[in-house]
Amino acid sequence: MPLDLSLVGTGPKEPLLRPREIYAALARRPWPYLRHEQGEVLERWFDSRTQLDVVIKQNTGGGKTAVGLLIAQSTLNEGLGPAIYLAPDRYLAAQVRAEAESMGLATTDQVDDLAFRAGRSTLVTTFQKLINGRSVFGVVGDSREKLDVGLVVVDDAHAALATAEAQFRLTIPAAHAAYAALKTLFAADLERQSPKAWADIQTNDNTATLPVPFWSWVDQQAKVMAILHPHADDQDFKFVWPLIAEVLHLCSATVTSSGIQISPPAPPIAMIPAFASARRRVYLTATLADDSVLVTGLDARPQDVEQPVTPGSAADLGDRMILAPVALNPRLDPESVRELARQFADGDRDGDGTCEARPVNVVVLVPSTAAAAAWRQHADKVVHAGELPDTVRALRGGHVGLVVLVNKYDGVDLPRTACELLILDGVPRPMDATERREAGVLSGSPSLLARQIQRIEQGMGRGVRDTEDHCAVLLLGSQLSIALHDPKQRALFSPATRAQIDVSSSLAEQLEGKGLEGIREAIGLCLDRDPQWRALNRSALASVHYDARGTVRAEAVGAREAFNLAMTGRYDDAAARLQKALGSVTDPAVRGWIGEQRAAYLHHVDAHIAQQQLSRALDDNPFVLKPVGGVTPTQLRPAAAQAEACATYLKDTYADATALLLGVQAILEKLVWKDKDRADEAEQAWESLGRHLGFISTRPEKLYDTGPDNLWILGPARSAVIELKTGCVTETISKHDLDQLGGSVRWAAQTLPDVTQRIPVIVHPSREPHGQAITVEGMRVVTPEKWTALTAAVLGWAEALTRGQLRWQDPQAVAEQLTFHKLTAGTFFTAFALPPAAATG
User: At residue 300, does pLDDT exceed 60?
Assistant: First the structure.
């Protein structure tokens, strides 16, 4: 009689709870065993699963998807209720479902699926599907059923955080009726904050951002609600309005010429009960160096976030070679690197025109469409977000060539040969109005730098998604090169990435000054998986461990808790909580930013005290909102001697010659002609250039909302009043621009009466005034041609100071080079600026 296997093991049995045991019992397994790192993480999660929030950190390619799916299955087996797995986008959600299918785990993409509702299947969907004002999971105040959830797994938590912030920001485009109504309502307040920025907005200059003062916003709430509420069902409103309507009075509003953005101090995530009330929340992340954002963005519990779950070793990362060509040879032309990239994509590794090697996929990450322009003649494809899924499939399917991805530094998986040479050309810049305003207020602060490094690291991880992957990474431009060279910036990378940067830097020491040939040879070692190179890379990672504790900044916790208090009307308590947080903040820029928010909460209970608090915040950060009474400009005093001031500044700023060269190049790279989106960076560049050359250099319009873009004090009675119009595309200097320059000269005469000689300067693509314009007496024009000459002179000056032991710290050597390169106060605007041409009609 044959054996009946259907009767074997049919008795009652307890469901498996430990994820490793669940995997071992699967009928089909894509791998015989889980990786050691995966097993460690799953065991540690199981031991800490009673926490509300668990952060799991694994390097990119460490197998986080399988970890998240097994955690979801464990929670289902435990009977805690439905489990949701959130991916950054639909493409990645489909990948997660495919991996689950390969493991034999039940998933669905339908919220109404009965197996999901009954806790027998995991719902795999996107973060946007859950977090929106018309969420099918229910929003506080609507009539939908509020789903009772046992577990939410957030994959790529850093990408989810960006999505969360965007989902809680209401952007009203300029074409919408509410835009004009709000702009009219706050016109007088906006103009008082900054007459220049207001004028720029009126003339459709999209680089200008203006915050509505919090006192005006709060005091006009009835009118604001009357303007916005009728549009609740409009396409631009319906997915955000239900999330912020109840906290509208706590929001900030930022005005640009293209729209108005309304955003709360922190996302009111409690509006989505399925997330806020889930019994367990798990965050999967690879590059989240600052864990504070989980607290501010998703209201995770700080004590839980401070105890991340990690593998015992951080060595679970593929092979990466990370090089910055400009740091190796400051004279390298960026175009030559673009040509190199094209050649490697074709298989011409030595650049002789013959394709003698295996062609590889080269992926270039750029921050904007404008930045992609330099690559178009070399690229097979320039890809924006909407075209991404098809392009990723093509790259993963075979050889495509050279592909440029526009502003996509995260959420893209390019394993194996999908991307073997990755190039980051430029740093991701803030895109929406709220981000741009915050970046302007925190400009130069360590906090903003940490966020920037995190974005860079996210980008660097696109080509290594598995321990067996390999990818050569090139960072173009001086700003990215500084991130590798400067010890303070390097320390902000994750431990494993730091280790790979260090071993790559050791290799790079042999390449200094060799030009492209050395870089070609080094990239070849990585692409060919040279055994000695791989051994060095593996050895560098072998002893690396994750940080035992998560980084949770006290001020971030304070900001979230203060917002939660303010949502319940406890404004005094919210202000007190921020005051407590200020005690731990050493960064003046952040102190001022928090002080502004504290003043906003105080305004709800005492408008006078709120203005006093704002004045104190201004002492820490001159870029926060200006109080009702305005700000008195500081009297500026010139340095005793330009060369001495210059040498002192350089000594205090740069530790070595490479840092000096990269720092100067980074300044010059910020000025881009005919790109309005880079106007603020151009102003930063001029301010920094003036300081490097030994002048007192400020941005009055930014500081006081009046006066010129830049003001250089050249000597005891001499100044340069500078207006930057680098974003202009006109063939003449407009009447508006020249009137503005004249007004800035008059401001300087009233504000600094002792500085009797004032040089009016405009930085403009043309030196020809429009026929209706009146030039300013004595004005000079810095044209693109003169800027090119100035760039060469400044680079020559910096390079000369690096030839010798610490010459940039010697006032005598500095004085000689300033004179030789015509960078002294007396020669600068004669050598590098022209008088205006004759006016044309």
Answer: yes
Q: Are residues 137 and 194 in the same domain?
A: no
What's the pLDDT at 117?
A: 95
The per-residue pLDDT for 60 is 65
Distance (Å, rounded) from C-alpha 555 to C-alpha 553? 5
What confidence tier does 722 reach under pLDDT thresholds 50, 70, 90? very high
Q: What is the dihedral of CA 313, 316, 320, 323, to 10 degrees?
A: -30
> In this predicted model, what pLDDT tens digit does every residue of 216-241 receive, in sequence order?
999 999 999 999 999 999 999 999 99
pTM: 0.84
Of 652, 657, 654, nearest to 805 by C-alpha is 657
Please check the confidence at residue 769 and state whether its pLDDT lies above 60. yes
Q: By the 8 A CB rule, do 739 and 733 touch?
A: no
Do the strands 402-406 and 381-383 form a parallel or antiparallel pair, or are they unpaired? parallel
Q: How far apart are CA 690 and CA 719, in angstroms?
A: 11
Same domain membership, residue 256 and residue 277? no
> Is there a domain that residue 68 lies in?
yes
- Between the CA of residue 793 and those of 139, 320, 552, 714, 817, what are the distances in Å? 60, 37, 45, 18, 10
Residues 159, 166: Cα–Cα separation, whole Å: 11
Q: Encode burial over 250-276: b for 16+ CB neighbours within 10 A, e otherwise.
A: bbbbbbbbebbbbbbbbbbbebbbbbb
Q: What is the pLDDT of residue 320?
A: 93
Tokens describing residue 272: 């989505």
Where does residue 124 fall: left (phi above 0), alpha (psi -120 to 50 degrees), or beta otherwise? Answer: beta
Phi, psi (degrees; rounded to nearest 5) at 250:
-95, -5
Q: Which residues pair with 366 in a beta bridge?
A: 406
Structure tokens at 84: 């949701």
Residue 64 confidence (pLDDT) = 87
| Phi and psi torsions of 578, nearest 5° | -70, -35
Residue 318's pLDDT band (boundaries 50, 70, 90)?
Answer: confident
- pLDDT recorded at residue 58: 85
Asked whether residue 668 is domain-assigned, the answer is: yes
CATH of the domain at 797: 3.40.91
**Two structure tokens written together for 341:** 């990239």
* H or E element, residue 557: helix 554-567
Same domain, 81 and 108: yes
> What's the total number of domains in the chain?
5
- What backbone torsions phi and psi does residue 210 show, to the nearest 5 degrees? -135, 125
Q: Do 701 and 755 belong to one domain?
A: yes
Tokens matching residue 750: 């009233």
Q: Find all residues with CB under 8 Å of 355, minimum gap 6, and list them.
A: 346, 347, 348
Each residue of 352-385: pLDDT tens digit?
Answer: 999 999 999 999 999 988 899 999 999 999 999 7
Could you tell me if 646 and 788 lie in one domain?
A: yes
C-alpha distances in Å from residue 3, one per residue of 10, 11, 12, 13, 431: 14, 17, 21, 22, 68
| pLDDT band (50, 70, 90) for residue 711 | very high
Packing angle, helices 64-78 and 90-103, rounded to 10: 70
Mean pLDDT of the chain: 91
Nearest-angstrom CA–CA distance, 425 and 444: 21
What residue type is assigned to position 837 of the chain? A
Q: How far apart are CA 737 and CA 774, in angstroms?
A: 10
User: DSSP readout, 60-81?
Assistant: TTS-HHHHHHHHHHHHHHHT--
| 636 within some domain | no
Strands 280-285 and 259-263: unpaired
What pLDDT is recorded for position 637? 62
What's residue 11's pLDDT?
52
Q: Which domain holds residue 562?
A: 554-620
Asked if residue 629 is part of any domain, the answer here is: no
The pLDDT assigned to 287 comes to 64
Q: Which amino acid is at 391?
A: T
**What is the rounded CA–CA span in Å between residue 48 and residue 307?**
10
